[in-house]
TrEMBL record:
Keyword Methyltransferase: no
Cellular component GO terms, alphabetical: cytoplasm; nucleus
Family matches, as InterPro entries: NHR-like_dom_sf, NR0B1/2, Nucl_hrmn_rcpt_lig-bd
GO molecular function: transcription corepressor activity
Name used for this protein in its record: NR LBD domain-containing protein
């Protein structure tokens, strides 16, 4: 499901809730700020133009964050994924020092 579809559904729900007086102005403002932040995050991620390998490494790093049970094993896995991502990026973009 695309982000635009999700956001359109949220906005549609907000509009219906406004018409039915189910939401306060403050709550609507809060939700709209979250939507804006999500859009900004997605736009900045799209600008990175990451490939499938980079995406997979980043996904592994995020999915196995230290907040889960068995943190020692998870931290080791996360470190390994970070090192492999770093190696991949250095090999793939060797001319780009940034």
């Amino acid at each position: 499901m695309s982000l635009s579809t999700i956001l359109a559904a949220i906005v549609n729900h907000l509009q219906n809730s406004i018409q039915e007086d189910k939401l306060s102005g403050d709550r609507i403002k809060q939700v709209m700020e979250h939507i804006w932040k999500l859009q900004e995050f997605c736009n900045s991620m799209a600008k990175l133009d990451i490939d499938g390998y980079e995406y997979a490494y980043l996904k592994a790093i995020v999915l196995f964050s230290p907040g889960l049970t068995g943190t020692n094993q998870i931290e080791k896995f996360q470190e390994k994924a970070q090192m492999e991502l770093q190696d991949y990026v250095q090999k793939t973009y060797s001319e780009d020092t940034y």
